[in-house]
Amino acid sequence: MIDLHAHTTCSDGTETPRQLINNAIIHGLTTIAVTDHDSIAGWSEAASAVRGNIELALGAEISCLTTNGISVHMLGLLFDGTNPEMIRMLDETRDSRIPRMIKMIELLNAGGYEITMEDIEAVKPVGATLGRPHLADALVAKKYIASRDEAFNGLLNNESRYYVSHMAPTPEVAIAQIRRAGGVAVIAHAFASHRGEVLEASDFGSLVDAGLNGIEVDHRDHSSAERAMLRVIAQDLNLVITGSSDYHGTGKLNALGENSTNPQEWARLEAMADARRVVKL
Q1: Are the C-beta atoms of 228 and 220 separated by less than 8 Å?
Q2: pLDDT, tens only, 38-81
Q3: What is the mean pLDDT of residues 169-198?
Q4: Calculated CA dihedral for residues 202, 206, 207, 213, nearest 10 degrees
Q5: What does the alpha-carbon distance between residue 25 and residue 46 come to, in Å, rounded to a whole number?
Q6: In which residue ranges of the chain is CATH 3.20.20.140 found?
Q7: Which pLDDT value is given to residue 193?
Q8: The CATH number of 2-95+167-270 is which of 1.10.357.10, 1.10.8.60, 3.20.20.140, 3.90.1150.10?
Q9: In 124-253, which residue ranges form alpha helices assigned H by DSSP?
Q10: What does the pLDDT read at residue 194?
Q11: Helix axes 97-110, 132-141, angle to 10 degrees
């Protein structure tokens, strides 16, 4: 079983990289990808936890914005983690999250929700990439809401008046940089319409021109109809089809390995990187 999208405490997951690898082994996964938001901070710990027959794909989920303001998440896998331009893009995207969070706090305060950056830091793991899930956790701690899922279905949804976007590369820029760093690019949950405005089928042409390798088709946030549409798009454009859990530990309902990638599709995707960077014993 191959799961190419999972998070740790280095972004907004609730398990450390070592705990994630241990959990993947317990669940019988053969391949697990660590894809923290705009961060590779968990790579070393995850790699040191690899044992037995499990294989580790190192990566990151990069926050992007289209030129007309649509939020897109791009999975970069198997890239060179020492590539200076790649590191710079991740750093700049991560740094932009702080002013964004301050603005969201201001909007929430104006709406009657008393929340501070200190409240968020109190629930955020040390060193984790700051994000909306931590704001959700702070709102839960203050008893404004019951769970992260409730937050993302309401207060913190992309269409909410409390939502603020942050500075981020366009999907095309992110894809091109992932490819220059020797990795492969897979667009994550591209048609998850309940999160907010999503791409159209016609938007994939420019992504392919930039070097897109695959589409995450099988994902909890895609309906059957959305999965079918994405599968057709992937086949028409000769893109790899992946399935993933987008696991966050106890932070979300997503179960490790609940969606997986066909081994043949994974072999095809891995071969597109400029080097064999899968970590295994």
Answers
A1: no
A2: 999 999 999 999 999 999 999 999 999 999 889 999 999 999 99
A3: 94
A4: 100
A5: 12
A6: 2-95+167-270
A7: 85
A8: 3.20.20.140
A9: 132-141, 148-153, 171-180, 204-210, 224-236
A10: 76
A11: 40
Residue 187: HSE in the Cβ half-sphere, 13 Å Cα cutoff = 32
Q: What is the CA radius of gyration of the chain?
A: 18
Of residues 252 and 31, more confidence is placed in: 31
How large is the average pLDDT for residues 186-199?
90
Distance CA 71, CA 221 (A): 15
Band of residue 196 on the pLDDT scale cut at 50, 70, 90: confident
The vertex-225 CA angle with 224 and 231, nearest 5°, equals: 90
- Mean pLDDT of the 21-37 span: 98
Tokens of 11: 């972004």
Given the structure tokens 């793991």, which residue do they identify? 125
Residue 53, H or E segment: none
For residues 74-97, one letter each, b for 16 or more C-beta atoms within 10 angstroms of the residue's C-beta and e for the rest, the string is bbbbbbbbebeebeebbeebbebb
- DSSP-derived secondary structure for 90-118: HHHHHHTHHHHHHHHHHHHHHTT----HH
Is 216 in a helix, a strand, or coil? strand
Residue 234, phi then psi, degrees to nearest 5: -60, -45
CA–CA distance, 184 with 76 (Å, rounded to integer): 6
Structure tokens at 125: 């793991």
- Residues 37, 60: Cα–Cα separation, whole Å: 6
Query: How much is the pLDDT for 166?
Result: 78
- The total of other beta-carbon atoms located within 10 Å of residue 123's CB is 17
